[in-house]
Amino acid sequence: ELFNYMKEHFDNEEQYMQEIHYPYLNEHKIMHKNIIRDMSYLIQNIKTTNDLKEKLYTIMSEWLLEHILHHDVMIGKWIKAHNKNTKEEETKQEELTEDSQEKLEFIYSCPCKTTHALSYNEHLDILYHNKNLKCKNCQQTLFYFKNPI
């Protein structure tokens, strides 16, 4: 039932994002697809009741909670910025919308232990568009360290 609820919820959410012209709809759809794929894989490989508990905890905490607290919250921030500026010019509205997305930082690191604060757009590019960013100091590929709070 949880699996079916998630699929229905994701479908409804994607339809809503399409209606409001959310600029990160495609990336969000990829996130949903990955969550469902990973959940399906985990469920198919359950061997014991304890295994079920552990895997459900993983799904709920690492994927769904992270998804809701970080990516779904971005939809609300976008709507707020978008509605706030409905009386302004279209170009001004787009700039402010992008600014609201850019304020959220995602923490990345590298082998030389330098901390890199990346924007939401940069984070999405790395995750879903195979963008590869390197540290200016050590020239090594950055890796995801932690979510914004």
TrEMBL record:
A single MF term (Gene Ontology): metal ion binding
Annotated InterPro entries: Haemerythrin_Fe_BS, Hemerythrin-like_sf, Hemerythrin_metal-bd
Signal peptide bounds: none
Keyword ATP-binding: no
Gene3D superfamilies attached to this UniProt entry: Hemerythrin-like (1.20.120.50)
UniProtKB keywords: Iron, Metal-binding
NCBIfam families noted in UniProt: hemeryth_dom (TIGR02481)
Family from the record: Belongs to the hemerythrin family.
Protein name (database record): Hemerythrin family non-heme iron protein
